[in-house]
Amino acid sequence: MRRARGSGALLLAPVVVALAFLAAWEALVRVGRVAPFVLPSPTAVLASLREVGAQVLAAAGATGLNALVGLVAGTALALLAASLAARVRVLREALVPLAAAAAAIPIVALAPVFATMYGATSELPRRLVVTLVVFVPVFVNALRGLLTVDPVHAELMRSYAASGWATTRWVRLPGALPFVFTGLRLAASAAVISAVVAEYFGGLQTGLGSRITSAAANSAYPRAWAYVVAACALGLLFYAAALALERAATPWRRAGTG
């Protein structure tokens, strides 16, 4: 009962804050007579969202697919690289600086280069951008988790003469899961952001990013904000999916918290 009340309070708080924010936004636009091209009101955005709902869903599906493919590919590559780097010190010393350098590359520099390399009719450039953006946080956190081993557990496995794979399977991987999912939560939202931003630089006009720029160029600002709202909702959906996956994969943490 206490846990249910706590969950209800956790859900109610952000809803109340969101409603208060929207009410303040609406009041600011109406009382301050803010021009629509500066900031449209939430009611105007909602009306536009109803008007072009089908197009918004289609664009969100295209962007979501690019983000999902890049998220899965980047996570798989990051976990593989972290597993190898945790066991081979030379490889770890080579990959960590490369990951830091990759984190410093802005999306606005990558997207046009990939679009030129692979053409404007392919979704591959956008998925490559997402893959690279996702790789860094998952790799860094997974590597940290794999290298963080309780000395007592390590000594116990040595006393059992356990192999390297057995130690990894029963000690390193379970201990690294919280770190991995920390990186995955960060990467889930970043995947949507990078997918939307990558769509600003040409290519197929099917995603949210291209629809936002097109609507803004045509002075349809409420419609542009409707696509922005869809991008926010897509990011929250990815984050919630990562959080649900974490809860399913680490039930012992939920039981310990309870």
Automatic annotation (TrEMBL):
Keywords: Cell membrane, Membrane, Transmembrane, Transmembrane helix, Transport
Main location: membrane
GO biological process, one term: transmembrane transport
Subcellular location: Cell membrane
TM ranges: 56-82, 94-115, 127-147, 179-204, 224-245
Keyword check for Nucleus: no
Membrane topology term: Multi-pass membrane protein
Pfam families noted in UniProt: BPD_transp_1 (PF00528)
Residues in ABC transmembrane type-1 domain copies: 56-246
Gene3D superfamilies registered for this protein in UniProt: MetI-like
GO cellular component: plasma membrane
Xref: InterPro entries: MetI-like, MetI-like_sf
Record family assignment: Belongs to the binding-protein-dependent transport system permease family.
Protein name according to UniProt: ABC transporter, permease protein (Cluster 10, nitrate/sulfonate/bicarbonate)
Organism lineage: Bacteria, Bacillati, Actinomycetota, Actinomycetes, Kineosporiales
